[in-house]
Amino acid sequence: MSKRKDYNRYMGIKLKELKKYIRNMQGMYDVVRLVEPDTCKVLDVNKVGEEATGEKCYTVWGKSERCENCSSFQACIRNRVQEKIEIRDGIECHVISIPAPLELDGAPSSNYAIELVTLGNKVLNPEEQMEYELKRINEDALYVSMVGDKEASDEVISKAFLDSVIGIVCLDENFKCIYANKQAFRMFHIPNGLAEMQEFLSDWLIADSSIRSGHVTSQFYKRDGKEYLYEIHSMPAYKHKPELEKLAGICLAFMDITDEAMNVGGAKFRETHDLLTGIYNQEGLVKAVKAKISEAPDEKYYCISSNIKQFKLVNQLFGMEKGDDILKYIGLGMEKWCREGDVFGRMHSDEFVLFMRKDDFDAERFARGIHEVAKLIDNSVYSLRFQLGIYEVDDVHQPVFDMIDKARMAIDTIKENKELSIAYYDEQIMKETVHEQEVLNGFRFALDNGEFHIFLQPQVDFEGNVIGGEALARWIHPEKGIVPPGQFIGVLENANLIYQMDRYIWELAAKQLASWKGTENEKYRISVNISPKDLQFLNIEVVFTELVEKYDIDPGKLNLEITETAIAANIGMCIELMGRLREKGFMVEMDDFGSGYSSLNLLKDFKVDVLKIDMRFLDSTDDPERAQIILENIIHMAQQLKMVVIAEGVETKDQLLMLDERGCDLFQGYYFSKPVDVETFEKFGGKI
Asked: Which of 566, 513, 498, 556 is nearest to 678 (CA)?
């Protein structure tokens, strides 16, 4: 059905309503007139239906023939409000043309248009005049009932057409729905009730602040399995001057552009735009970035990627609808935060990408916008945390996806947990990324080919008698030699592969204990580390039980070392798990005791055999004497609880003497020995 037939269906506006509308508008605009675009005649509203005999409407602009870009003609043809700029006696005139299909004697009449004219600034010279004449000629706009310095009141509401193909809703300064025309109720399938309209819009529209700015947006509406695309024009009205931001109310105009979206151009729109937010999707963004670069290849650009930390929790905690609302709000917000010419879109999930001139980037502007988004969730459990990765484009000829990847790499370096964190890409990030990829590519081969070995750092008493050792992973590359742990441990942790290496090291330790059986080295214990990822990916009880059975070793010789942080992350599960392992004969060590904020409370519930205290506990304070008093009491408390205390990180004789004086049982650190291969460890002969 054509839009002209839509007008016939709804019959149009009654003459009485038209007269009232024009009368009310005359107090709001400098010029209000009714025109018949087909004949270019200005009509007397009291003579509508008679032969048009008025003056030609274009003569007011000093022209002798029909305007080339007649906004009133376009308004009637396109069935939507149009605007343009004209010049009259050197004065800029803003013209709004509103289609006014009339119903006379129960039948549709000729198409008319109402022209609302506001006199503006004086045009000072021909150049400026030309600029004004060319400025946004005949551009779509919807100024229906609230424009400029107008009060949101019953009088304003009366200025909206009661019947139109344009759905109109008026909100007061508190965003309460105070008016909706018939078409708005039709479009949203709502009975004629403002309360129902208020409830629907509260759920359907993104957020109040998104409609304050007067932007034109589009949003999908679904009903009975059918999808509609509505164009939304937001028109704020102000009690006084706009710059004072004393909002009187807002008029929302809705137009159904579903048919347009379904034609060839509409299909293209769907290919290049994100259906949830209405902004570019991945395909559209890449094309738009390429076009922008081709227009100005010598400009300096930023490619910016965004991430919302743990966004999946939003869907889990607050529901998918809330997550979608946040994404839609960001999509609308991008229009406010960005400048004209910026290219932005949604890549997937919560990742948005922006491509802009470097000089136009304003961190404070983004911070303000993101703060508004963050307020959408006010919860003590979860708060929105945004991360921006920025890549300064140094080669505009590289693929757009490479630019985006570099911005993403910058995000990966962010360790902060603030409302907004920003990181910039540099070549060091690329080097680290390449290194990480080399580690990951070589990891599986290294496991399969036995490149990982255990080094043991001795644990000794005050006299230097070796009790056992802590097993530490070392990667011995056939070409590079020993790869320092700092170059691969963190990479494997970030890639969730550390559990595979740990599992391999545990087996090497069990195998080593088995090889010592029946020798003088049978007295040694080996401690192995259990990381939080191990608890997540492995059945720890099954793994260690099977290792003991496979190698026929004494579980009391294989100590299980778990950090306080790993325990605190899931204390209930750890208490039960370690309890069962202790019942099977394993000795459990709590590593890095004192590094958390609830150490004593943890110790109250979690029973372990060995307490390990890192010497960094003393180094990280400005009051060593006070720290030593605390340390002494921790040692005494542990011993009263029948736990062995090991101090690790002992590097000097003074440290050794101080720890021994306070009752520490065993020591581990470079003062005695660095981690060494098994052969060297055995050569100590039980004494260092």
From this structure: 513
Tokens of 417: 């947990």
Q: What is the pLDDT of residues 197-232, one digit of tens each?
A: 988 988 887 544 446 656 667 777 888 888 788 888
Cα separation, 136 vs 391, in Å, equals: 34
Length of the chain: 688
Compute φ and ψ for 481, nearest 5 degrees. 80, -150
Report the distance separating Cα 22 and Cα 45, nearest Å.
Answer: 9
DSSP class of residue 190? -
CB 169 within 8 A of CB 179: yes
Strands 452-460 and 676-677: antiparallel
Q: pLDDT tens digits, residue range 463-492? A: 999 999 999 999 999 999 999 999 999 999
Q: Domains in the chain, start-ordered, CATH in brackets?
A: 1-141 (3.30.450), 145-262 (3.30.450.20), 277-425 (3.30.70.270), 436-683 (3.20.20.450)
Q: Which class for 548: exposed (0-12), middle (13-18), buried (19 or more C-beta within 10 A)?
A: buried
CA–CA dist 596, 602 (Å, integer): 9
Distance (Å) of CA 99 to CA 12, 111, 447: 10, 7, 75
CA 338 to CA 278: how far, in whole Å? Answer: 16
HEC profile of 169-182: EEEECCCCEEEECH
Amino acid at 92: E
pLDDT at 124 over 60: no
The answer for residues whose C-beta is within 8 angstroms of residue 258's C-beta and 6 or more apart is 227, 228, 229, 230
CB 90 within 8 A of CB 148: no
Q: Which of 240, 176, 241 is nearest to 208 (CA)?
A: 176
pLDDT tens digits, residue range 426-466? 989 888 888 888 999 999 999 999 999 999 999 999 999 99
